[in-house]
Q: What sequence folds into this?
């Protein structure tokens, strides 16, 4: 599937419901509810009675689907794996920030 820039821009300006997120990422609604309850997928806002989700939640949900499909993980396994992936991304950002502060070129090994 090819995602056009206009689709990405539209999604960044709008939010979707949990049911729509379930449809877009092909995960069952009860599993998504567990992931939201465990903090692996966070809503943008909880205005009214239904939480709304954005692009970051869609990325996390699609990663969860791939992990579930590839490794046959249950909800608790997905929570752990998504938490570890998030931590790796944080550490990579921190490394980039620290490397940017170093004087001169970096010599990768």
A:
């Amino acid at each position: 599937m090819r995602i056009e820039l206009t689709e990405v821009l539209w999604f960044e300006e709008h939010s979707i419901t949990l049911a729509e997120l379930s449809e877009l990422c092909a995960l069952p609604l009860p599993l998504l509810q567990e992931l939201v309850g465990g903090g692996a997928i966070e809503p943008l806002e909880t205005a009214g009675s239904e939480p709304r989700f954005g692009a970051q939640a869609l990325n996390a949900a699609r990663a969860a689907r791939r992990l579930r499909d590839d490794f046959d993980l249950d909800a608790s396994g997905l929570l752990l794996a998504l938490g570890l992936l998030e931590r790796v991304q944080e550490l990579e950002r921190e490394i980039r920030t620290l490397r940017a502060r170093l004087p001169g070129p970096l010599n990768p090994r």
